[in-house]
Amino acid sequence: MGAKKHELKLFKAYQQNIIRERKWTFCWQIILFISFFILWELSSRFYWIDPLLFSSPLKVMTLLIEKFKDGSMIVHTQVTLFETILGFIIGTILGIIIATFLWLFPRFAKIMDPYLVILNAMPKVALGPIIIVALGPGYTSIIAMGAIVSIIITTIVVYTGFKEVDPNYLKVLQSFRATRWTCFKEAIFPATLPVMISTLKVNVGLAWVGVIVGEFLVSKEGLGYLIVYGFQVFDFTLVMSSLVLIAICAAVMYKMVEKLENMLIIKN
Amino acid sequence: MAFLKLEHVSHLYFSNKTYTKALDDISLSINRGEFISILGSSGCGKSTLLSIIAGIIKQTKGNVLLNNIPLHQSDYVLGYMLQQDYLFPWKRIIDNVLIGLKVQKKVSKKTRQKALKLLDEVGLPHLEDTFPNELSGGMRQRVALVRTLITNPEILLLDEPFSALDYQTKLKLEDLVYRLLKQYHKTAILVTHDIGEAISLSDRIILMDTNPGRISTIIDVPKVLREEKPFLVRRQPSYQQLFDHIWASLNRGSETNGSKET
Ligand SMILES: Nc1ncnc2c1ncn2[C@@H]1O[C@H](COP(=O)(O)OP(=O)(O)OP(=O)(O)O)[C@@H](O)[C@H]1O
Ligand SMILES: [Mg+2]
């Protein structure tokens, strides 16, 4: 009886220790967050940094509130979010579709191999001007930019995943005279689902890169456009505000994909 | 007339640097309804032979004929139970069992019922909704057996199907497989390391040599043993005789091989 009580006490202590550790970490994260903004504000006030170039948190906040009130910031955020989400989805899905074709037609895959390597090594944003010429200056080009940065890497990662599936699963299906497509559907695809899910997280980050660069190049709307515009008219408060918004949106999207990932993994 | 016929079948495995001769000049005729067992030491090419008959790998030389038609042109249903179970971990047991029928687009209420009945018969009732990783090795092996049986194959190819089972379960399943095969007059080829199992189930036993894999002897099982149920065969006086004979032949085979290597 006494021994059991003692064990329970130890267990409680262990749990409390974990909770304490978590609180402590969180505290420091908050402290760091606040001190960053305080330091930024102070250094701007006392001209340790040039307030014209680096703005200040208060100015950024005032600008954000004002722009959200008149609705203009909402439009810009919406445009960028829309482009990023679409670019992300298109890039991921197209990548998986191409990988599927590569697996279904091994000869085709062998032929394509060196081209995939080159395309992968190439900095995709360098294609920006060509995409704009081809698709015209507008949403389409920017979404294409968001997609193109993730397509090739998704293709390569997912295709490698397909190839690594234990061939004995295929033997089981082949013994029932399954076609290659059935083998894909019943064994390859489900076995590689974890790989595909893990590419989602990478692709979210890549889509942001593509879209912001795309907006730098052509757009008349969006957060990337605001950064360029702010830079041109020397309004660095606007630049900083856009950066803050991008950071928030990207983090939220990343977290959402992470949630989706957990959900999918549990389901499988 | 032979139902399944192998004519001078040889197989080489190629890799970038070298090749292995797994099978050398295998010729064999099997009649409809016959039960054949293959005995031979590890690595003599038994699994390779079954994979060729199942049409999963193509032999480098020779012909495999089913009813006088080349294997890949015939539309007979073959059932191949691989040496490892390879159940799909993401599918429930029932879906694993029905995968063959699904591939052949033959899933119906009736086949589902049949699957549940077979699972019950192999001693796995009420497990249809669990996932493979919740089962033991022997249980998984039985699921794989049901997955093969359910497609009602004309030829059943079994690669050590009972290796992970306790003695009692093994005898029970031998009985079940034997009963099903005889009832529907099906042909079967069984790979095993258990001489007793080979004797009690088969009409003929093929002994194989290693390096390269070759047929050394084909033994006809006496009629008295053939007509007895597997479980009772082991009590017949001629069973022990045959057992000793096979044992001696297998030993001789491995000795000559050993001397060749040294
Ligand atoms: N995929 C492969 N690639 C190359 N060599 C192989 C391959 N599969 C089998 N072999 C070789 O072919 C020979 C026969 O192998 P096989 O699996 O048919 O033997 P087995 O008789 O089934 O053995 P066991 O009783 O251990 O299952 C072995 O020497 C093995 O190394
Ligand atoms: Mg084997």
TrEMBL record, chain A:
Signal peptide: none annotated. CDD domains: TM_PBP2. Pfam families: BPD_transp_1. It is found in: Cell membrane. One of its GO terms (biological process) is transmembrane transport. It is a multi-pass membrane protein. Residues 73-257 form the ABC transmembrane type-1 domain. Keywords: Cell membrane, Membrane, Transmembrane, Transmembrane helix, Transport. Its main location: membrane. The chain crosses the membrane at residues 26-48, 85-105, 117-136, 142-162, 187-213, 233-254. It comes from the Bacteria. The keyword Cell membrane applies. The keyword Cytoplasm does not apply. PROSITE patterns: ABC_TM1. InterPro entries: MetI-like, MetI-like_sf. SUPFAM superfamilies: MetI-like. GO terms for cellular component: plasma membrane. Belongs to the binding-protein-dependent transport system permease family. This is Putative ABC transporter permease protein YtlD. It comes from Cerasibacillus quisquiliarum. The gene is ytlD.
From TrEMBL, chain B:
Keywords: ATP-binding, Nucleotide-binding, Transport. Residues 4-235 form the ABC transporter domain. One of its GO terms (molecular function) is ATP hydrolysis activity. Gene3D superfamilies: P-loop containing nucleotide triphosphate hydrolases. The keyword Phosphoprotein does not apply. Pfam families: ABC_tran. The keyword Transmembrane does not apply. It comes from the Bacteria. SUPFAM superfamilies: P-loop containing nucleoside triphosphate hydrolases. SMART domains: AAA. InterPro entries: AAA+_ATPase (IPR003593), ABC_transporter-like_ATP-bd (IPR003439), ABC_transporter-like_CS (IPR017871), ABC_transporter_ATP-bind (IPR050166), P-loop_NTPase (IPR027417). This is Putative ABC transporter ATP-binding protein YtlC.
